[in-house]
TrEMBL record:
Name of the gene: polC_5
Primary enzyme class: transferase
Keyword annotations from UniProtKB, A to Z: Nucleotidyltransferase, Transferase
Protein name: DNA polymerase III PolC-type
Keyword Nucleotidyltransferase assigned: yes
Transmembrane segments: none
Amino acid sequence: MAIHAVIDFETTGLSPALGARPTEVAIVIIDGGVIVDRFQSLMNPGVAIPRDIQALTGITNEMVREAPTVEAVMRDALRFVGTHPMVAHNAAFDSKFWDAELRRIHGRRKQEFACSMLLARRLFPEAPNHKLATLVRTLGLPATGRFHRALADAEATAHLLQHIQQELQRRFRLSAVSHELLLALQAANRAQLDACIRRYRGGEKRST
């Protein structure tokens, strides 16, 4: 299995384009299906956290008042991720904040995000919905703490990623699951999964 950096943000709102900033980030490194390293930090977003967001995440304005700046934390987070392929649950959300905050520190993302939510939709259509908490409960994954806190969500996503990789290996008799295959599968619909796997196998044979 490839090494992955699994990331989760908690934020003041839904979109950096509307002025939302991160309040917490967590990243776990998963290697061979095992979490081998962790990074987590609160950060001062420089804007007030709305009451509904405080209630959802448990992160209050008082908690972040003395926290490091977003810019300082993002520099550390960028070094921690390095060149590892990235994964998030609802990556469209987390990648927006990752990219927006990298621009503030004159950084740039070099790797594509795999999305465990999109992959779960392809592989587990019978789930009641594909929210992280629902998938953890439905698939019997380990409980990692309070949902909507960054480290608990990142660890839960790492366990979900491992489950997705194992399901792909079992269902399609794969010896390994690369980041490139995850990207291809999340871009396909459920009817295209078999064809996507065949193309992947064909590419593997040509490269050997």
